[in-house]
């Protein structure tokens, strides 16, 4: 079960690659939504308002389920897909890569464009700090105050993420656990008398 994903920690800018008079400038941004992508694109376009092409590709979601590639006026599949190919090669999501082109007067041909956009994207991502993240499942635990120590011990034993806690007469916890460990950890909590466990999968089972 895949329970990790990779993204970049911070933006990369102004990675320059030149080919036959044309100048290609690479950018990479960590993004979490299409709104953030639009803002990043606007930032690049304002910086390079005289450029001819703004080709890009992005991938979103922890399961890598959403992506888009755009040639922005270059021949079909000569720019966006080579850039997207590098997102795949580096196994990245929640990431946008933009390659700005200033045309130098000499046509590169489709093969030349594919190679150049791929190389620019590759060199841009090589400068990025890539970070690894786990995909977590969340569940809630409710108990009386005298059971709090049991819950806290389990959190420590399984290195769980304590997302939220409310400790009054009763105790409420929202916990996160790595996806591949979820069933085992949930069963461990369920075995303890006095702990009420809440997760959508339990409701489905009735």
Automatic annotation (TrEMBL):
Domain (Impact N-terminal) ranges: 20-125
SUPFAM superfamilies per record: Ribosomal protein S5 domain 2-like
Family annotation (Gene3D superfamilies): Impact, N-terminal domain
InterPro entries linked to this entry: Impact, Impact_N, Impact_N_sf, Ribosomal_Su5_D2-typ_SF
One Pfam family, short name: Impact_N
Domain of life of the source: Bacteria
Family named by the database record: Belongs to the IMPACT family.
Annotated protein name in UniProt: Impact N-terminal domain-containing protein
Taxonomic lineage of the native organism: Bacteria, Pseudomonadati, Bacteroidota, Flavobacteriia, Flavobacteriales
